[in-house]
Amino acid sequence: xxxxxxxxxxxxxxxxxxxxVDTDYDRGVNFSQIxxxxxxxxxxxxxxxxxxxxxxxxxxxQELKAKSWQKSDHPQVLIDIKPSEQVVTNTNTVGIGTGSYxxxxxxxxxxxxxxxxxxxxxxxxxxxxxxxxxxxIWQGVFSKEFSTRADSEKIIxxxxxxxxxxxxxxx
Length: 171
Fold this sequence. Notes:
This protein is an alpha/beta fold. 25% of the residues lie in helices and 44% in strands. Strands 1-6-5-4-2-3 form a six-stranded mixed sheet. Residues 3-16 have low confidence and may be disordered. This is DUF4136 domain-containing protein. Residues 21-169 form the DUF4136 domain. Residues 1-21 form the signal peptide.
C-alpha cells in the first residue's frame, strides 16, 4: 500500500504543469557589442489587455536595463512580442471497479468515469531582430498551463525573468 501511495504521489507531481522555456540565437552575433533596443511599433498583442501589455514591456525593460541595455530611438535591436492564450481541455478517465471471488466463481464490474479539466495555456514569444537588416538574432519562448486565471503581474514577471535568465548568450 505504501508503494501505491508513493507511485500515485509521483504521478501527481509529474502531472503538475511546469513552465516550458526555450531560447535560441544566432551564434554569429556578438551580443556584447549590442547595447540599445526598442520595440516594433506594430506589435500584434493578440487580444492581450492594456494592463498586461504594459506589464510585459515594463518587465522586459527591467531585465534589459539590468544587463546594461538602454532603450533608444536609434536602436541596434528591435523587439517583437507575440503573446497568445488558449483554453486547453484535457480528458482523463478514472476507473472504478468491484469484484468478488469465491468457490471457483468470480465476478467483476468496472466503470470508467471521464474527467474533463480546462486549463488556460499562455504562450509568450519574444524576438530580437537586428534593426539594420531585420534578421532574427534571438528568440525566447515561454509556455505554461494554468488551472485558473492567476495573478497576471506575477506570471509576466516570472516568465520574463525565466526567458532572460541566460541572456545575453555567451559564445
